[in-house]
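Work Package 3 (structural annotation) set out to generate three-dimensional models for the target panel prioritized at the project kickoff. During this period the team completed the workflow that converts sequence records into discrete structure tokens, so that structures can be stored uniformly alongside our sequence database. As a representative example, we reproduce one entry of 505 residues exactly as it appears in the project archive.
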Amino acid sequence: MPKLSKKIPIRNLRSHKCLDKNPHYEVPGHTFKEILKVSGRDRDVQRESVWRYIPGKQSSYISAVIQGYSELASFHLVNIEKTIDSLKEKISHYNDPLDIEYRERLISFQEDGYKYLHIDGGNRCDAIEDWDNDLIPLQSGNYTVEVFDGTTGQMKKVTVILQEDDYYTKSVLLNLGGDYAKLVEAVDSALFNWFEYPSLTSEERKDLFIKLNDNEDLTTEEFRNCNTSLYCRSVRGLNDKLKQEFLDADFITKSNSIRYKFCAYLAAWSNYYSWYGQIDPYATSTLDADYVVGTTNNTKVTQNYDQFIKFLDNTFLPFMRGTVVKRKNLAATGGRNILHDLFWLFVEIERLNGSVASSNYKRLFDAYMAWYDEKCQDKTPKYNTGQDRETWVKFYDLYGANTWYKAKHRVEHLREDVIPMLVEQGIAVVKDTVRLADPRWRIPVWERDERVCPLSNRPISREEAKDPDITSLDHIQPHSLGGKTVMENIQLVFKDQNLAKSDSV
């Protein structure tokens, strides 16, 4: 016979009573909106609004409502008045302080004009509210909805096309009228399911909230991976191609390679390649926008994706494979994050119309690491990495994470210190964006060089100096080797001599 446990007062025992709920199925949108208008958000069980800060999330939900998905996710609401009444009786028996506080809290919401409180569905409620307040547009695309034909008395299907570049809010659609207005009607006539709870205690309400959200949370990257954009599929394919190589080289950890986290790593590189650090490439909001068709971000990264892949295949990956090889090649401080520096460095050199010969890859790596090691000797906290307040850190502290508050300082160093150093040492070449010399320089440089071809020492007549079929304006320091297109670096030479010289100095 099992040993009897010490008896606990009945009021302190966990309640496992059947859930008291009233289902409301297939409530039309225009009716359900009236319910939501008097539904409050109690932060005890509701998170802050999230969807409002995720680009396109609210628009996606309203578009789904039009498609008929509104019935698939139910709303769960506490009936304030009925719950207050049920608590009154319970308090009279047990006088539980938690119940008293909860009842008072419900009364405060009631006094503010609310009839219900959200348990689950607050973000969807926000989306519906913001749609009605003209704060969000519908997603672009083709919409097919069923409408009633007053002439035939039959339902008919209507297709409405929303272009990507336009902003279709509720009022815009109503002003356009015709079939466009049918999309607004589709939201108002969509069917919703909701459950009303008339007698939940505070503990029961919390327990219900937990159970409704009890399934394993998807990672940000897994949610992002659900996008159907071409860019999403492309990044996922790159993930499949490179992940094992980065794992083997110890550039990423196992935990940062699963559940599409390496996709975020690569997407951040793609974003930096497209935007050159003009926006934070590592922010969740940035990458979310990159994945969503119709956003400026998605257009930018999609247009540049092929060039990004070419850059990886022809420049950075050959450098990485031939020079860095393993994480052990990198300094202990900074470790894996130094690889991001090197990626940004090559992108910045390309941005400046520059290049690094593959024969100089080892020299570049050694020069960078020497510069890095020297900078790490400075123990002075001189970098502000704070968001809302000042937070000053030392140089090597910048490599603890790739938050943009830290990474932007590293990028500035690459631009202001490292690239000029590499150019000075002849490791990197930065070409002048102006390739051709001004033809008006012909006579001035001819006079300056005493009317002689500097390459052959043959005299040049005035007529020959003016004739582009006979003479050429030539870079003294070749443009391909970083020579500037300025008069001081230009000479007038015979064309045959220029061809013979090619890219030599």
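The mean pLDDT is 86.
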